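Design a sequence for this backbone.
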């Protein structure tokens, strides 16, 4: 079930990027980021009040660290989304599963844990599928956005690992989402005060409303999926975002997938299926599959 949450969050992420593309002519990236954080914060407060989730936490340092990194993710994501095609932006941002898998493998080796190299190979194969879909030599955007996209991938990986830690100490999902957007709203609120140009009429755009809906769904799905799920399975399923983005490009922006793109999608789907099968087989045989989760603290 946790893998399905990762899959759903990947779909929502692709929809968010598509929505941002529709807004790039009418909203500055600071305005978009501020509205994102403020809206999800308001929704999360309502959820916590209804479900009676306490606002106090004993792992405030993890929330603060995730918030700092998360603000970097949002800013770099919006910059790339506004200046690159959806599939290209997704490709660079979704290098994060490679970073996650790499960090997980290193941690497992240091702890003396066994790793099935076929699982790591399937994750690498999924990224190869992305490279097949995205033609690095055929770009119509400034090269400066490539390292920004990679930085977004690295930030995302770090945020995911912190989510894993929060999940391991049984931190409630609404509270995890709340503190991230509380800190982000404060930072972006200050930037909006001095640099923003947001008006009431800009808030009445349909793409903005859709972006906020998908963003809220993505945040909760991501926290649920990464907080309790298998790290390697989550990593390979995250690549599905590029497949979703390609279909969105085709449906709404008139970009027809080539045979090469379709072949890349096939590689990604096959790699995800292989990874899922390997992990399921290992768990059925009672073998330990590292998830980068520590034991819950008292």
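Sequence:
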């Amino acid at each position: 079930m946790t893998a399905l949450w990762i899959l759903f969050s990947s779909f929502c992420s692709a929809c968010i990027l598509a929505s941002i593309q529709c807004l790039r002519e009418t909203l500055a990236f600071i305005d978009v980021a501020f509205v994102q954080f403020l809206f999800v914060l308001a929704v999360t407060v309502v959820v916590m009040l209804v479900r009676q989730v306490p606002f106090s936490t004993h792992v405030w340092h993890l929330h603060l660290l995730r918030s700092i990194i998360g603000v970097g993710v949002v800013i770099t994501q919006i910059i790339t989304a506004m200046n690159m095609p959806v599939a290209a932006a997704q490709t660079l941002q979704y290098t994060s599963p490679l970073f996650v898998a790499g960090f997980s493998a290193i941690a497992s080796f240091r702890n003396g844990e066994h790793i099935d190299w076929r699982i790591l190979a399937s994750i690498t194969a999924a990224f190869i599928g992305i490279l097949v879909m995205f033609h690095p030599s055929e770009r119509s955007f400034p090269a400066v956005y490539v390292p920004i996209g990679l930085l977004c991938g690295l930030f995302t990986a770090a945020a995911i690992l912190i989510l894993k830690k929060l999940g391991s100490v049984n931190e409630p999902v609404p509270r995890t989402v709340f503190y991230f957007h509380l800190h982000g709203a404060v930072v972006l609120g200050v930037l909006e005060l001095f640099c923003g140009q947001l008006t009431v009429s800009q808030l009445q755009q349909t793409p903005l409303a859709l972006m906020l809906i998908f963003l809220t769904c993505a945040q909760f799905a991501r926290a649920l999926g990464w907080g309790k799920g298998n790290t390697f399975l989550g990593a390979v399923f995250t690549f599905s975002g590029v497949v979703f983005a390609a279909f969105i490009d085709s449906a709404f922006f008139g970009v027809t997938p080539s045979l090469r793109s379709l072949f890349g999608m096939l590689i990604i789907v096959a790699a995800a299926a292989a990874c899922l099968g390997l992990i399921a087989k290992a768990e059925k045989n009672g073998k330990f599959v590292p998830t980068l989760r520590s034991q819950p603290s008292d």
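The chain is about 75% helix and 0% strand.
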